[in-house]
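Q: Here's a chain of 423 amino acids. Please give me its 3D structure as tokens.
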Amino acid sequence: MIWFSLALLVLLALIGVPLFAVVLAGAMLGFIAAGVDLGVVALEVYRIADTPLLVALPLFTFAGYVMTASNSAQRLMALASAFFGWMPAGLAIVGFVACAIFTALTGASGVTIVAIGALLLPMLLKAGYSERFSLGMVTTSGSLGVLIVPSVPLILFGVIAQQIDVGAQFTIPQLFLAGAVPVLLMLVALSAYTMWSQQGFERTRFEATTVKRALWDARYELPLPFVILGAIYSGYFAISEAAAITALYVLVAEVLLYKEVKVRQLPSVVRESMVMVGSIILILGAALALTNYFVDQQIPQQLFEFIHGTVDSPLMFLILLNVLLLVLGAFLDVFSATVIMVPLILPIAVQYGIHPLHLGVIFIANLQIGYFTPPIGMNLFIASYRFERSVIELYRACLPFMLVLLFVLLLVTYIPSLSLWFL
């Protein structure tokens, strides 16, 4: 019965049935086989929808969509260029920084490729960078911000991990702190590779007037990181309240002060952002219902005993985990992969002595690289459509950047103090 059910679910997924329906069907089949009333599924969906922390997801997502509808990308590029354009390979470093920040604020890697990539690619080509380097950089940089506050994928990991309630307890602000050093290492490593491989390009002069103009243009958005960080780490606000403050600030800045997002646009912005959030919450509710079945049947414990019989060291477990997550990241978006795999992996990782915060960083860092991992990494196809290049060409362009990020991933995986430095 179990194997037939699994085969049926795989078949449903392959023919294109929505993911939440596949996961929900798995939970229902499991409970039916166990003789449990299916009302428990509805209770699980309600439980996740009633979680106060979950309010942060739609609010941060809405703020990101409002920024996407404005000219924030242009101002961010100008600001980063004013501060970093004088450095060796300065324009490329500007791109790394701008893409990371924009992805963190908007919560969507693909949006960064469309918004900032459309500005950055012509600038790189005009400055003399090769087309292969420029395409690879724009395609890979779009995912850099998923470890930076207020990363929606990190919040999602935290929500799921807290619902499972295994291992050491942690807060969402601690999860953001855990991602700070790893993402800084990624930016430094990518910048170092770029300065080594791309030399001889003309640098822009550092001019006080240019910096002042860029600061003035971004005067309303410049305080945003301080608003977010202050609200989260001051201790006066919960993460959901910090998200509400962020959404309100962005709304006032873009609609009333910059006046780039018209009031008549807001219904469509709300609709687009909430459709994405709704799909995440629906998948999350279905996944936690399936998790409830797994816990009832002691499947994580059985899975740990099976793995432990073959893999007896945390080191080998982490190697296999990295391979698994890289493959999943190439086939699933970061949200789907997180809600499906965290309930299975977290209980096993804890028994290997891995801290949930460390696991969260490993998880999201792998899925970040999965965005541009062949054969079907999401960023590859978005960039292919946006820049009218073949996916095969983008595979080759992304390879050097992928190797650099894989090197950093190994450091982050096997040096836990890089994520747990504040504990």
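Q: Can you summarize the key feature?
A: The mean pLDDT is 82.
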